[in-house]
Every structure is written in C-alpha cells, then in structure tokens.
Design goal:
The chain has about 150 residues and is an alpha/beta fold.
C-alpha cells in the first residue's frame, strides 16, 4: 500500500496521503482536510476500506470499461469536494474478483457507499456528476442521521 501525493485545494501544499490511517488526512501546512483517494485489491481491501473511520465511496471498475473511465474524474472531484467526509477507494474488478464477488457486482461501474463496513447505498452505471453529487450527499446525510440515532 503506497502513499498518494495530493495537493491541498486550500493552500496548494503537496501532501503524502497513506492508503490506511487511523484518522482523516489533513494538510501539513494549513491543517484543512485533503481528499483521500486510493486503490485497493483483494489483499489490501480490508485494511484500506473496511477499517476506514469515515464513509468509503467504493468504485468497482475495469480499465476496458468506457463508462468507468467517464465517471472516474467526477468521482475524484467529489472526493475533493467531500474531503474529510469520504474516502474514495477504487478497485479494478479484473484484478480483484473476490472483492467484486463480495459486493455482487453484475455490471460496472458499480458504486457503493460503505459506513463501518456496511453498505448504505449502491448504484450501477455512470450518471452525470450532478446526480452523483446529490446521491452521495443524500447518502451521507442519511447515514449520519442513522448513526446519531444508534
């Protein structure tokens, strides 16, 4: 599991962001939340996604899939927008069939929102970015309310 270097949207400082951490990545200079985007495979999925303290936006994709390539930039923009609230984890289903089986993937891209290792929302396909933003925002809001009631 490698570190990813991500520039802070607020101050521009480049930060190393580990695939696995106990908290939420923050900029070393301005201390604002920075996007958390990483890849996972069968061997690393439990550490990268299941142990996350914040919601995981799981992108189950394949490199040969046109809709997957279309939705990827939108997901990265959403990871930036929801920095500190979402961890974007991308899984290539061709390289991690066990993860695809675990989530019952029948078509790609399949997007799943996980909270504490539980599925709170899922959808298949590549909707436009505004629809993805609404879906993710509504999902996080609902999951947050449910967590407060529990």
């Amino acid at each position: 599991m490698d570190n990813t270097v991500i520039a802070c949207d607020a101050c521009g400082r480049r930060n190393r962001v580990p695939a696995v951490a106990s908290g939420v990545p923050r900029c070393a200079q301005c201390h604002g939340p920075i996007p958390w985007m990483t890849d996972a495979d069968t061997a690393t999925f439990a550490a990268v996604a299941d142990s996350s303290k914040i919601a995981v936006l799981l992108d189950l994709w394949a490199p040969w899939c046109g809709p997957c390539r279309m939705v990827s930039p939108a997901l990265e923009r959403l990871a930036r927008e929801f920095a500190g609230r979402v961890k974007l984890v991308k899984v290539n289903v061709d390289e991690a069939p066990a993860v695809a089986d675990r989530f019952g993937v029948k078509g790609i891209p399949t997007l799943v929102v996980l909270r504490h290792d539980e599925i709170v929302a899922r959808q298949t396909g590549a909707p436009p970015e505004p629809a993805l933003r609404t879906w993710l925002d509504d999902t996080l809001r609902t999951a947050s309310r449910s967590a407060r009631r529990a």
